[in-house]
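User: Hello! I'm new to structural biology and keep hearing that structure can be predicted from sequence alone. Could you demonstrate with Putative repeat protein (TIGR03843 family)? Please show me the input and the output so I can see what each looks like.

Assistant: Of course. The first part below is the input, the amino acid sequence of Putative repeat protein (TIGR03843 family). The second part is the output, the predicted structure written as tokens.
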Amino acid sequence: MAPDELADPLAFLTEAEVEIEGRMPWSSNATFLTTLRCDGPDGAIEQQAIYKPVRGERPLWDFEPGLHKRERAMFLLSEHLGLGLVPPTVIRDGPLGEGSLQWFVPADHSEHYFTIYETRGHLHDRLREMAVLDIIANNTDRKSGHCLLQPGADDDPSLDRVWAIDNGLCFAAPYKVRTVIWEFAGDTIDDDVLARAATLLDDVPAEIAELLDDDEVVAMQHRATKLVTERALPAEDGDYHHYPWPLV
């Protein structure tokens, strides 16, 4: 099920019963696949979601505990910018305590950023927008595998969607973007995207700001200001770019 098939996917994520199906492999923090169930007007609704409880986080030297708040803040920022790149995400109590709960995307896991970039040119604009989102959010961990492809219905490429997941390592105050999305460095940013980014310069929505420290909010505004002023994606230091590890 796609999020837009429900009138209010956030309410569903917040109110549905949560059953843990199992732990997701290869995750550095405890990450669980869950099934959500809730009665709807036309019968029972069932949907999978990704659950990341706070108690399952490994200590980090550069981020305080509570990465679930950053997952939620990234969703809210994507929505505020009108990008729709992050699956619906809420904070709620679950079977293992408070954490983030994110809509599960039925993606083609043989695809990731590098394959999407090479073979699906019609999605390049969306990838540029993901780069904008990651710069404003100061994403330190945009691996290739954190960019999911949801193929269009009936194999229609025009209905393909790209999603940005695993967004917990974002919004630090010091600038330290680490991403695989550098092919668009120096590209001019779309005017509509710049206009939406400009709304952050004077005021960050309260529902985002309350999830972050004050200095992180100010730093986000500085990054947005730089993008709006320069009107192009940063090229970093000459030919040197900052990449996460592993790349995929």
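User: So the tokens describe the shape?

Assistant: Right, they're a compact way of writing down the 3D structure. Reading them back into a model, for example: The mean pLDDT is 94.
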